[in-house]
Amino acid sequence: MRGVLSEYLSKDHDRLDALLTRSTATPGIIDMESYSQFRKGILRHISMEEKIVLPAITRWQGGRKAALAERLRLDHGAIVSLLVPPPTESIVLTLRSIFAVHNPLEEQKGGLYELLDSMAGTETEKVLRELQSGPRLRYCPTTRNPMQSKQPGLPLRERATNFINCRRGR
Ligand SMILES: [Fe+2]
Ligand SMILES: [Fe+2]
């Protein structure tokens, strides 16, 4: 049985999947209202994982990162970079193909969320409250200028973090 933290984060995956599906329900058209809810939601979700979940696991493991952390962070960087330009059908397809591999790494047995649940112990309620109140974000709007060209020297993950925080880079 899933613990409460797994449950909270896995349900967020389901909610975001449904929004992305709704945004492309009509072939050839992207419903921008659904897409923009999805976009805000996935940025918040990634922030929860980057700013709350992964640091908490590192702390509980005495400074050792979760084995999956680097892999997940690379995926997060790729996801965020796809949220920079205005959406197209191929961007939505690419996002889906990333989620098809990424979400199971978090949800499956032995995945990130099970590790989170198993380590949280007496901090479970505190972490749940942190997730529910969520990191405060300023959402950068989409731009036709790819952020890569503005920040050519920065690694993808750092560019993604800057984008989540709406910063311009170094
Ligand atoms: Fe993730
Ligand atoms: Fe996730």
Please characterize this protein's 3D structure.
It is a single chain. The chain is mainly alpha-helical. The chain has one domain. The chain is built from eight helices and no strands. The protein has helices spanning 4-23, 32-60, 69-82, 89-107, 112-120, 124-133, 147-150, 156-164. Bound molecules: fe (ii) ion (FE2) (2 copies). One fe (ii) ion (FE2) binds next to helix 2, helix 3 and helix 4.
State the gist of this model.
It is built from eight helices and no strands. The chain has 170 residues and is mainly α.
Key features of this structure:
170 residues; 8 helices; binds fe (ii) ion; single chain; mainly alpha
Total number of distinct structural domains: 1
Poorly predicted runs are none
Order of helices and strands: HHHHHHHH
Q: Which sheet architecture does the biggest sheet show?
A: none
Output mean pLDDT: 89
The radius of gyration over CA amounts to 16 Å
* Classification by helices and strands: mainly alpha
The count of β-strands is 0
